[in-house]
TrEMBL record:
Species whose genome carries this gene: Flavobacterium shii
Protein name: Outer membrane beta-barrel family protein
Coiled coil (residue ranges): none
UniProt keyword annotations, A-Z: Cell outer membrane, Membrane
Cellular compartments per GO CC: cell outer membrane
UniProt superkingdom: Bacteria
Lineage, broadest ranks: Bacteria, Pseudomonadati, Bacteroidota, Flavobacteriia, Flavobacteriales
Record-linked Gene3D superfamilies: TonB-dependent receptor, beta-barrel domain
Pfam families assigned to the protein according to its UniProt record, in alphabetical order: OMP_b-brl_3
PANTHER family: PLUG DOMAIN-CONTAINING PROTEIN, TONB-DEPENDENT RECEPTOR-LIKE BETA-BARREL DOMAIN-CONTAINING PROTEIN
Main location: membrane
Length: 455
């Protein structure tokens, strides 16, 4: 259960044709988010046929409300009530899953399974306009059902480890406003998702692997609602009931030498989701929301290099990235390689202290549609164990308080140059007491589904 009270206060200059306005906007917002998740797992090993059976049931419910009161002051006159906004969103999701795993004497393993999910959400929208003394009511219902079957065969042929599998999914989606006779969204489609992995050992210290996978990434249920957030008289943050899932194709190859590796991968995404502007010239209102772009492609070259020397242990990752995002509504700016770097360093200090220093950085990113600034962030932590069972950790993230994020793009004939200041600098203290060692258990809990779509 979570409750937030916050204000959104803006100072806005707007000019359209020969009309100019300077507006101060104060909005008071009350938000509540209630999330409940219940699951039941059962696992059984049938020793006679060396088969493992897993079944799982899960029900999740997410209930969110946002109440807002908006006041505007045009051209240094006086504040006047503009809107009362009452928005509610609720989704319930039921999932069921069964997996059967069979091992054979020749080290082959066959896995088959099925998944069923059903989601039902309601999005209610109530706005009272003080200027016209009118209420705007809107009720939107959304339903989604997924039925999936999958199979995977893995094992070893001579010295080659392999894994091949396929997943088949059928999706039925229906979205309808209560005042409409026909649904706004009515889709029923089936997708196939193959995958394959091969690993070739060269010797005891070196190996090469090749992977291919096709997968799907679906929007959160709340992203598929009709909610909006009022920023000022000319600007709204909105959600998008028309979002489609993203289909991802990825192929990669990796060379492993002891604990060091280099990996080259290529991916192609259909219907990737990014931010976009939609401008209503008649009402002079800009809406900023997620939309599906046409295509995204990219190459990654990833070097991973762990290293240890006396009291120092470090893991470093260096990734060269070339990405291209394309959409017919956007101006193509440039697509250039950029660099991502990550380093995690652990130092064993005297008297049982451990110092951890980690950092990551990005050079300037040119992704075709989007241009973003370079970033560099450092986190630090100091920990020590007292009296064997007490562990105390002091953590400071974003040590140098690097909070500026810049982005520019042109979409739907709207040019945007944004500069965001996000304060996520945090200092925390954690104390943990260990009662003893955890006994080994043959049962390993499996996730029935990723609940990330629910919140």
């Amino acid at each position: 259960m979570q409750k937030d009270t916050f204000g959104i206060n803006t100072s806005t200059y707007n000019k359209k044709d020969n009309i100019e306005n300077n507006v101060l906007t104060f909005s008071d917002n009350d938000s509540n988010k209630d999330f409940v998740n219940a699951f039941l797992n059962y696992s059984k090993k049938i020793k006679a046929i060396d088969t493992q059976v897993f079944t799982g049931l899960q029900y999740s419910n997410f209930d969110q409300g946002l109440w807002s009161q908006v006041e505007n002051n045009f051209n240094d006159t006086e504040f006047g009530l503009t809107q009362i906004r009452d928005q509610k969103f609720k989704v319930g999701v039921f999932l069921g899953r069964i997996d059967i795993e069979k091992k054979f004497k020749n080290e082959m393993k066959l896995e088959v399974g099925g998944l069923y999910s059903s989601a039902d959400s309601k999005s209610d929208f109530d706005i009272f306009y003080y200027e016209t003394n009118k209420n705007i009511l809107s009720y939107y219902d959304f339903k989604e059902q997924n039925l999936a079957g999958y199979s995977q065969l893995s094992g070893k042929i001579k010295k080659v480890d392999f894994s091949v599998g396929i997943r088949v999914e059928n999706t039925d989606v229906n979205g309808k406003f209560k005042t409409d006779l026909l649904p706004l969204i009515d889709k029923n489609y089936t997708n196939f998702f193959p995958k394959a992995q091969l690993a070739f050992p060269i010797d005891s210290s070196k190996s090469i692997s090749v992977n291919y996978a096709k997968s799907i990434s679906r929007p959160n249920y709340s992203s598929l609602s009709q909610g909006t957030t009022y920023i000022n008289p000319y600007f709204l943050y909105g959600r998008n009931i028309n979002l489609d899932p993203t289909i991802i194709d990825e192929i990669s190859s990796a060379f492993q030498y002891h604990d060091k590796s280099v990996k080259l991968s290529y991916y192609q995404n259909r219907n990737p989701v990014y931010n976009s502007f939609i401008y209503d010239d008649g009402q002079n209102i800009m809406t900023f929301k997620d939309v599906n772009f046409d295509k995204e492609t990219g190459f990654n070259l990833d070097f991973t290099m762990p290293f240890s020397y006396r009291f120092w242990t470090t893991t470093n990752s260096l990734v060269f990235i070339l990405e291209k995002i394309e959409d017919k509504s956007a101006l193509f700016l440039a697509s250039k390689p950029y660099l991502y770097y990550y380093s995690n360093n652990e130092f064993k200090l005297p008297k049982g202290f451990t110092l951890t220093v980690s950092g990551w950085g990005l050079t300037k990113q040119n992704k075709g549609v989007f241009e973003r600034n370079e970033r560099f962030v450092v986190d630090m932590a100091v920990s020590k164990t007292f009296f064997k069972n007490w562990d105390c950790t002091l953590t400071c993230n974003n040590v140098f308080n690097n909070n500026i994020q810049e982005e520019q793009f042109t979409i739907n004939n709207v040019s945007s140059k944004a500069r965001y200041q996000v304060d996520w600098h945090e200092i925390s203290i954690a104390v943990k007491y260990s009662f003893g060692k955890i006994k080994d258990s043959q049962f390993k809990e499996k996730s029935v589904d990723d609940s990330g779509r629910i919140r």
